[in-house]
Amino acid sequence: MPRSEWTEENISYAMCFFPWVGVVIGAVSYGIFCLKGLACEQGILLNDLFWTALLVLVPIFITGGIHMDGFLDTQDALSSYQPKERRLEILKDSHAGAFAIISCAVYMVLYLGVYSSLTKASIEVIALSFMLSRTLSGLSVLTFPQARKKGLVATFSQNAAKRTSKMMLMGYLVILCVVMVFVGRWMGLAALVAAGLTFLYYYRMSMEKFGGITGDLAGYFLQICELLMALAVVIVDSLV
């Protein structure tokens, strides 16, 4: 994306457009899955692991890994078992600790395992899940208490046109719930349940461990939510 300068005017509606990043990720992921089928039809027999790894890396390529960075920082903070103030300091620390590296490896291996079981039906639901995770993340930025008065989340929350942004995000949420169940039936419902439970955990954990949310915690939620939705979809797909 071209570099842009943040102003109060363009920040105020940023959350309204945040879920559309998920649309791009979902479209690219679905396109790669379809490309895999076309390649096989043309006799281009690349190993399944190649396509699976490519799908796992799509969100990181498109976002630059900004949400994964939050996930890793949060894992370091949670694994420190320090008081709340110290956990918040760890979130701001630019150094990667051992638990961040271990968590990254575990996360990627789990995602690789989940995506190795994709079918055309399951990828259709998972493609929609990228927009759902960002819709919920956007709602948390606008509604959850912030752990700090300064920072990325505080900046977006304080300068947001909250009423309009909340209405837009709630509209996205309702539409996505209907579309995901319509497209995936039980798989769509499983994804919604996984997202809802993760959202509740995110709120409770943030309040108990950090006293509110930060940009890193929002990234942590997004990564966990997407993995658990994909896992739920794949499991249900194998059962029905």
Explain what this protein looks like in three dimensions.
The N and C termini lie far apart (40 Å). Helix 5 crosses helix 12 (215-239). The protein has 12 helices and no strands. It is mostly helical and 240 residues long. The protein is 81% helix and 0% strand. The protein has one domain (8-239).
Structural topology:
Layout lengths: L7 H4 L2 H4 L1 H23 L6 H16 L2 H15 L3 H9 L5 H18 L4 H24 L8 H8 L2 H23 L1 H25 L4 H25 L1
Strand/helix succession: HHHHHHHHHHHH
End-to-end Cα distance: 40 Å
Name the helicity range: over 70%
In total, the number of strands is 0
Count structural domains.
Answer: 1
Instruction: Give me the secondary-structure category.
Output: mainly alpha
Global Rg: 18 Å
Q: How much beta, percentage-wise?
A: under 5%
pLDDT below 50 for ≥5 consecutive residues: which ranges?
none
Major beta sheet summary: none
Mean pLDDT: 89
Q: Which geometry do the CA atoms define? A: globular
Number of helices: 12
